[in-house]
Design a protein that fits this description.
mainly beta, 17 strands
């Protein structure tokens, strides 16, 4: 078997898989091989997500490994919960677990699957970093703080957005932010506005 397992910190909320694929050759610019949903299985138990290759996924991966180095890529989304404090890092534990092959029935063959042999693990500790953004508006001529300066944040498509105190990005018609004026932000007396 070939299994990817990630246990999330309680300050992270799992939002689901984005994609699962293989890369053969060079990890940075190798050939990308998409996996269909029948070639892997996703299981979510509380804060733990597991993605395991099915028999057809294993067959696809093993066919590629014979000819080139191959990487399994699992992409998914999480949201940082409001309990997280700005400026801290959130650690979660990721394991890549793999067991023996079942290609041979001969117990002397190194490819023989031995159910008593412990599975190998490749642990890693990725981090998620929280942030707090401060906008500081100053007069471009004399450098004085600009109190009451109005501004907007725009997404990549040019639409106004607003960031809530919990870090949620709000777009038009979401959570009470409907009109264009709802997206106008203003600096305080010190010329600063804090975006959480």
């Amino acid at each position: 078997h070939y299994r990817f397992q990630d246990t999330f910190d309680s300050r992270l909320s799992y939002q689901g898989l984005e994609e699962v694929y293989l890369i053969t050759g060079n990890a940075g610019n190798g050939t990308r091989v998409a996996l269909s949903t029948s070639e892997y299985k996703e299981t979510v138990e509380g804060q733990k997500v597991t993605v395991e290759l099915t028999s057809s996924g294993l067959a696809r991966a093993e066919g590629l490994v014979k000819n080139a180095d191959t990487w399994l890529v699992v992409r998914y989304n999480t949201v940082i919960k409001k309990e997280a404090k700005p400026g801290e890092h959130i650690e979660n534990t990721v394991y890549l677990q793999y067991g023996g092959y079942e290609d041979s029935k001969d117990p002397n063959d190194p490819n023989h699957h031995d159910p008593n042999r412990p599975e190998e693990e490749n642990p890693d500790k990725p981090y998620v970093y929280t942030s707090d953004i401060e906008v500081h508006k100053k007069d471009m001529d004399n450098g004085t703080d600009l109190a009451g300066a109005e501004f907007q944040l725009l997404d990549v498509s040019g639409q106004p957005i607003r960031i809530g105190k919990d870090g949620t990005v709000y777009t038009a018609a979401q959570n009470g932010y409907n009109a264009a004026e709802d997206y106008i932000m203003e600096t305080g007396a010190d010329g600063k506005a804090r975006l959480h």
